[in-house]
Amino acid sequence: MSDIPVFILHGLAYAGLLFLVSSGLTLVFGMMNVLNFAHAAFYMMGAYFSYTVLKLTDNFWLSIIICPILMFAFGILVERFLLRRVHVFGHVHELLLTFGLAYIITELVKWIWGNYPLAVNLGNFLEGQVNILGIIYPVYRIFMMFCAAVIGLIMYLVLYKTRVGIIVRAAVNDNEMVNALGINIPLVFMSVFAAGAALSGFAGVIAGPLLTTYPGMAAEILIDAFVVIVVGGFGSLGGALLASLIIGELQSFGALLIPKLSMALIYMLMAAVLVIKPSGLFGEEQ
Amino acid sequence: MKGLNTRVYLWGVLLVVLLIVVPLLFPRYQIALMTEVIIFSLFAVSYNLLLGYAGLLSFGHAMFFGTGAYAVAVILNHFQGIPILLAILAATLVTVVVGFLVGSLLLRHKGAYFALLTLAFNALFFAVATKWYSMTGGDDGLSVWRPDLNIGVTILNMTNVKVFYFFTLIIVGLVILFCWYFTTTAMGKTILLMRENEERMKFLGYNTNISRLILFTFTGALAGCAGAFYALFFQFTSISAISIDMTTTVLLMTFIGGTGSFGGPILGALVFTYLQDFLSDITDRWPIIMGIIFVVMVLYVPGGLSGLIASIRERFGTGNVTGTLETEGDD
Amino acid sequence: MDPSQGILEIKDIYKDFSGLEVLTGVTFSVKNGERHAVIGPNGAGKTTLFNIISGKYKPSTGAIIFKGRDVSKKQPHVLNQRGMSRSFQITNLFQELTVLENVRAGVRCRQGLRYSFFKRPEHNRVVAEKTEQILELVGLADVMHEPVSALSYGRQRALEIGITLSTEPELILLDEPTAGMTREETAEAIRMIDRVTRGKTLVIIEHDMDVVFSLADRISVLHYGAILASGAPQEIRNDQRVKDAYLGEEE
Asked: Of B110, B113, B251, B253, which to mutate for an interface test with A (greatest number of A Cβ within 10 Å)?
């Protein structure tokens, strides 16, 4: 019973992670109408790059800075040279491309780093536990929540308080209109896509040590992220936040209360949303 | 029409190869491989009715394939003495029901949303199959035995590779033939309308929800039938049959073969199966090669191999694009 | 159906999209066999009105009465099956299919040949005859085997009308059928529309006043989401409010 607060916190930590991953996904989808299946692969790449950086430098802070930058660059390349090319063939092709990309990345990861879980050694970094209001809780998870909160705040400030943010939000809502206003849409697309990749990679970096770094981690978070954006509504950041919290807590308590069905719980939530309000909590009516 | 004769000629050759050359001249391993090709041809054809004909990209088709595989296993294990055809039919019917239920939840969703949901459902099915040990054997899977087929004059031993090959060729072949006929029927034309302009269809009196539901149920049933044969072929069924990997396989096959024609997926099944067989002997990393081929084709050869062949023929003026609708999968 | 009632009654239709008011109380009626034009400046809500009539949107309040029955909440396919058909302002065809297949889609639906797994539309004589009739009617018989993408804009607009007719409607709604057409194409279109809508009821949205005045029996003027005036062409021509609000701007 006294464990409940711990589970709540676990749920929060995972929710933070989910939010980091799904926010990029939902923005890209809202704006470009492309569901990026490779998004979770970016997450995985972040975790694996981090593993290598750690192996080479033993400096986690360095990893936290470098890996997202690497993923940002990778995101630019993917959007500019792959995604943009298939745009003319239609939505189906875009989906197929991101799917194929995810597939290749997963196989390459298996090839380069091996098809087994990796031990990510953080050394003394944020190890140990801390006492919050009488609850003993791992520092690292608090760090995760903190990162998610900070990034979330930065995103909010950028999107709602800057000119760039207004452009991005407008593009998510109606990109033809934004194009008509003379703004360089391809540049906006590329930047948001790359930013999403960086976010996802960052999430991978901090998740790796906690959730196991292994080739299946992409698929694992992909489904959850997808459920988040279905429940939260496509294109809605607020929806992604709320849904992440719900899913995070469901995962945490589900594992506790009904372990056999915990996976199914998430899908049932999704099915319920589909039936009751298909556009999600905050999505637009189609 | 000149083109028509070439086609008839080609199909004729194919038939001869399948009926005579393969069983008489191929070694057992190759006969088995061809059986696998036939089974996957049905799976891919059913997938293409969704993708190429109706323009619906599904990332969950293996949920039906796997359902059929598990259904036939469970039926054969529970009803000793049941005729093999009846078991396959029953397994297909189970998949019809499943297809109907899942389809009814996905009526109004299009494009990426639809793709995403099918993926999630596939994951759900996979999760259920993994956990429901009593029904599916979980990670262990279920073994499937092939009952003998009594056709009156004689009893055929289905465990014989050649016998099973012919059985598969005839039954699955007939099903595939029906699928081809289907594309000329009213419903077959209606699904083309779905691809081209689902919105306008409504204003012409079509109930698009019903159209979707019928199509999804039908293609699901076809996949379930293929899945049943798959389980019988390997004499074993496991969670791999209902996995997203299996969906990836059929997606790759269909796309590589070409979504713009009826025969594309069949070609894809052939090429993919043989390529996989060939590559896996050489390297453990064959999935990467498949993935690269796939992405390259998405980027540069969107019509797949059959599209490539069609444009080569046009280029050299040997044939016209004939008869049935030879169009790109989407535009 | 009460003969004094119109085939189509628009009753106090109000439509708002999340706070944006597009229609603020539209009422008019269309008699059986009448040719009724709806005119008004851009943004007045004409296409939204069509969308509501044809079932694409539901009105926020108000009712659409078609052949005596309230159809405000009915789906588009139901309305079509009951005898209403509409065209689209932006050509809305089955792009990769041939002209013939485009027209046949509606014809065979009307004949009940929609979901059959066994019957083949190509082999149905009634479907074939009716399809040819329509192709002749809209002047596209010579290109029936061409894909839509090969047609000129004017002919695509003709096909748009052809498809609208293919379901044998009693009430035809045409949304700016001559949009983007040249002088000659427009004149030809007027003749064609006149021909194909004989004996049926027509409601047409138009900007081109020549088209309106050559075809319409009655005109309704939509201005900022409400009907400004409704009556015979001459009345509308002479109505001061209309002139101030609309005809003056147009010319």
From this structure: B113
**Interface test with chain B among A103, A109, A110, A275, by most B beta carbons within 10 Å:** A103
Alpha carbons C50 and B314: distance in angstroms, whole number: 45
Q: To probe the interface with C, which of B1, B184, B189 has the most C CB atoms within 10 Å?
A: B189
Domain membership of residue C57 as a residue range: 1-74+207-251
With respect to residue C62, please indicate whether it lies within any of the assigned structural domains: yes
Q: What is the 3-state secondary structure (H, E, C) of chain A?
A: CCCHHHHHHHHHHHHHHHHHHHHHHHHHHHHHCCCCCCHHHHHHHHHHHHHHHHHHHCCHHHHHHHHHHHHHHHHHHHHHHHHHHHHHHCHHHHHHHHHHHHHHHHHHHHHHHCCCCECCCCCCCCCCEEEECCEEEEHHHHHHHHHHHHHHHHHHHHHHHCHHHHHHHHHHHCHHHHHHCCCCHHHHHHHHHHHHHHHHHHHHHHHHHHHCECCCHHHHHHHHHHHHHHHHCCCCHHHHHHHHHHHHHHHHHHHHHCHHHHHHHHHHHHHHHHHHCCCCCCCCCC
φ, ψ of residue C27 to 5 degrees: the values are -135, 125
A30 is written with which tokens? 């809202």
Domain locations along chain B: 2-315
Q: Which two tokens stand for residue C46?
A: 């004409």
Q: How far is CA A194 from CA A72, A120, A191, in A?
A: 5, 26, 5
pLDDT for the residue numbered B281: 87
- Burial category of A286 from C-beta neighbours within 10 Å (exposed 0-12, middle 13-18, buried 19 and up): exposed
Cβ within 8 Å of A, B 57-96: 57, 59
Q: Which tens digit of pLDDT belongs to each residue from B37-67?
A: 999 999 999 999 999 999 999 999 999 999 9
CATH number at residue A243: 1.10.3470
In-domain check, residue A219: yes
B12 has a chain A CB within 8 A of its CB: no
Identify the chains in contact with C, defined as 3+ C-beta pairs within 8 A. Answer: B
Give the confidence band of B319 by pLDDT, cuts at 50, 70, 90: very low
The residue segments making up the domain with residue A106 are: 4-116+131-276
Closest CA to B1 of B323, B306, B289: B323
Q: Residue A33 and residue B299: Cβ atoms within 8 Å? A: no
pLDDT digits (tens, 9 = 90+) for C10-51: 888 888 887 788 888 889 889 999 999 998 887 778 888 999
Domain count, chain C: 1
Asked if the structure places residue A124 within a domain, the reply is no
The answer to whether residue C3 is domain-embedded is yes
Domain count, chain A: 1
Please classify residue A177 by burial: count the beta carbons closer than 10 Å to its beta carbon, then call 0-12 exposed, 13-18 middle and 19+ buried. Answer: exposed
Q: What CATH number is given to the structural domain containing C247? A: 3.40.50.300
Taking the CA of residue C112 and the nearest CA in chain B, the distance in Å comes to: 10
pTM score = 0.89
DSSP annotation of C123:
G
Of all helices (H) and strands (E), which one includes residue B277?
helix B264-282
**Are the Cβ atoms of A101 and B295 closer than 8 angstroms?**
yes
What is the number of alpha carbons within 13 Å of residue B204 lying toward its C-beta?
32
> Is A281 inside a domain boundary?
no
Contact between residue C104 and residue C131 where contact means Cβ atoms under 8 Å apart:
yes
User: How many inter-chain contacts (B to C, CB under 8 Å) are there?
Assistant: 94
Q: Which residues of C touch B202 (CB under 8 A)?
A: 75-77, 80
Residue of B nearest to C88 (CA): B200
Q: What is the CATH number of domain B2-315?
A: 1.10.3470
Each residue's pLDDT tens digit, C168-179: 999 999 999 988
Distance CA A165, CA A153 (A): 13
